[in-house]
Amino acid sequence: MEAPIVRVLHHSRQRVRFATDGVSEKIPQLEAQLLHSPGVLRVRINKMAACCVVEFARDFTLPTNLEAGLSDWLFSLPSITTCNKAEQQRVAYSPEEGEGEDEERFVPTRIILPLTALGLTLLAGPLALPPLGVAVFILIASHLTFKRAWQGLRAEQKINVDFLDALAVTLHSLEGFLLGPAVMISMIEGGEAIRDATQRIASSANVDLLATLQTDVRVIVDGNEVIRPSTSLMPGDRIRLSPGDQIPVDGVIESGDGSLDVVKLTGESVPRHAGPGDEVLAGFILLEGTLTIETKAVGESTRVGQITSMIQAAPVFDTRVGNYAGKIANRFVLPTLALAGLSLLISGGSIAQAASLLMFDLGSGLRVSVPTSIMAALSKASSQGLLIRSGRSLEILVDIDVIVFDKTGTLTQGHPTVTHLAILNKSSSSKILRLAASAEHGLRHPIAEAIVSYAENQGITPFPCDSWDYRLGRGVCATIDGHYILIGNTRLLRDEGIEPVAASEDPQLAIATPIYMVVDGELAAIFYAADKIRSDSRQLIAELHRRGIQTHMLTGDIAPVAHAIAESLGLKPEEVHAEALPDEKAKFVKELSAKGHRVAFVGDGINDSAALAYADVSISFASGSDLARETADIVLINDKVSDLLVAQDLAQRTFSIVRQNIGIVGVPNLSALVLGTFLPISPIAAVIINNGSAIVAAANALKVLGFSQKKLPSSPSVSQSLTHQSTKEHQTSGASDGDSKTAVANELTESNNINLLKLSNRLRLKHQSITARRNRPNFSEWSAQHDPDGFAWTYCGKTKSYDRT
């Protein structure tokens, strides 16, 4: 092999990631060479990006001139063009490539040869074809049956239903009865082809999440900005980002303030405000502001890279529906052979009589009817708003006993909406809404969009602004229709010399983000924005509990928010798992599977993708992230989480029909097998009984197309206050009332240990700001600066609470 041109993308002491230019067609040979070379521990190839990751042993010394040295080293490796199966699995394993040694693809020879043999058999008489030639062609067309029979003898060391079929085809062909074998192999291979068609119809494609982050970035070099590809970044590099940029590295903000969309990685629906010293992760999107970031981790070392590695390490299964025909028919192989031998003795050595009994194998009928049921279900699913990618996922869905949900974007809508409006002066709600919508109109911040959308739903149209000033991380100052408007957070009000009143103490509003509105220097209203629960989530949880299915909510959001949402949904506290990182989500799913549960995971974000990959059945939404959508076995096209009940009902209906077909095929074949042992039965009768039952079962399988979804039962009455959008006008009784609220907020904590929600109310800071800083060495000093009594606080990771020092 020619020495490849190597571009090193990233390297550490014992690990190198490099791109190979111009040798993409030789990647299989390169993989084999690397795997056989001394000092190499692991190899991973990304063929789409034409890059390779090699991990070396500790005693392997990388060359000083890395790029030239790697080229020489690769050129010096021994030439190996093939590698064994175990090594191929070490390199890369794609669900599209060989999901079992005995798998045959849906290729023309599978169907065309058997059908051609059947055609020749039917035309043998009119065309005066030689019977021996037709018999030989039938045996050739049966080569897949013979191959599976041989694999059963060699690998499993036992005879299987394919051995029975092969024996029946051979005996009948040698006896000169050609119609039976021709029809049999056509039915068998047709059914196997249909079963192959139930494998995953859209591969997960090993979506390279790192590749989606690759872009050109502005790197600061000697005070100047230089455009470079993000793949060339190294720890310590400083990059500058503008609104709309996706962050390609893990790092720390050196300067600047910005608003970050973090929902796909952390599950926080409200954008996170970040400033100097805050940590950022690859995959975050900068909504507003300009940031200078010092790179800490790149490529596979980032949190996103670790998620990708976990997905690639997930087990890969045969995605076709299970081989029911083989499992059931194999049980009757020995009894059938025994009865055929008994018939041979009773009939005085009639091979034709004994061979006729071999046709009652159950395999032919089930091989056609079972996959036909699955294919009909997969087809019907699309009309029900479901994309079910494989027969295996439909099969396993029947036995699911645990369903794990992500919160943000799954049980909730994934973006903030106004859930409550409190009017604090004598203004009308319509005037407040009109002024607020006018000030926020045109902003792309999710909170601003929520306020504008809320006003539009009330039929409010905005005024034009006479003047407008947006203040990053704070809010908007505007002059509208002669009124001076402030709308934003507490920092904006304090900048303007206005002391905000405490937000509502209603526990249902405790997890909402308060947005204050001041009109002409007077605090006029508070908007409460929160992630709204999907309209069908409560009914779904109630129905799953009714069906006896365990439900869990697993989220990266903070515990107070998670438990408040869970309470509204009807979930028990032990069913809630908050502040879970992506690897913890995957670990939780694996632990449930290890206990013998059949686990389904429902999620839509990048941080859900690892858990989706490890679940028995993975479910996502059409609006989910690319990685989650491609990893999922089932995609809810209509973005209705309750549609997973439709998928389970469809699966149960399908396998109810499968059980019917087992009876339709089994009863006549087994009855004929027993009777034919003692009474003569012609090969023609055997063909009619065996294949006739198969046709009836296949027709019965199409009943799946008549499936109609059931109406979702109404859930018990649950408090609607978290998600009910209503405008309740609360009049303040004067300054004394506001002072009392402030006094309550500033009241000394009775306990030295409080949760995040109470600390957030006490410090008058968003919980996102506290979460972002709680693990820093200076957290105590920082919290003391904001505490009304100067108390310092520390975070305890074990109890997820805050202690007063």
Compact description:
The chain has about 800 residues and is α+β, with helices and mostly antiparallel strands.
Q: Compute the number of helices.
A: 31
State the helicity in percent bands.
40-55%
The averaged pLDDT comes out at 78
Give the overall silhouette: elongated
Number of strands: 30
Distance between the termini: 66 Å
Radius of gyration based on Cα positions:
34 Å
Major sheet characteristics: 7 strands, mixed
Strand order of the largest sheet: 14-26-25-24-15-22-23
How much of the residues is beta strand, in percent? 15-25%
Keywords:
seven-stranded mixed β-sheet; 805 residues; single chain; alpha+beta
Q: Care to describe what's here?
A:
The protein contains 31 helices and 30 strands. It has 805 residues and is an alpha+beta fold. Strands 14-26-25-24-15-22-23 form a seven-stranded mixed β-sheet, with helices on both faces. The protein has a seven-stranded mixed β-sheet with strand order 17-18-19-20-21-16-27. Strands 6-5-7-13-8-11 form a six-stranded antiparallel β-sheet, with no helix packed on it. It is 44% helix and 20% strand. Mean pLDDT is 78; it is low at 79-108, 202-207 and 716-750. Helix 25 (626-631) links the parallel strand 25 and strand 26.
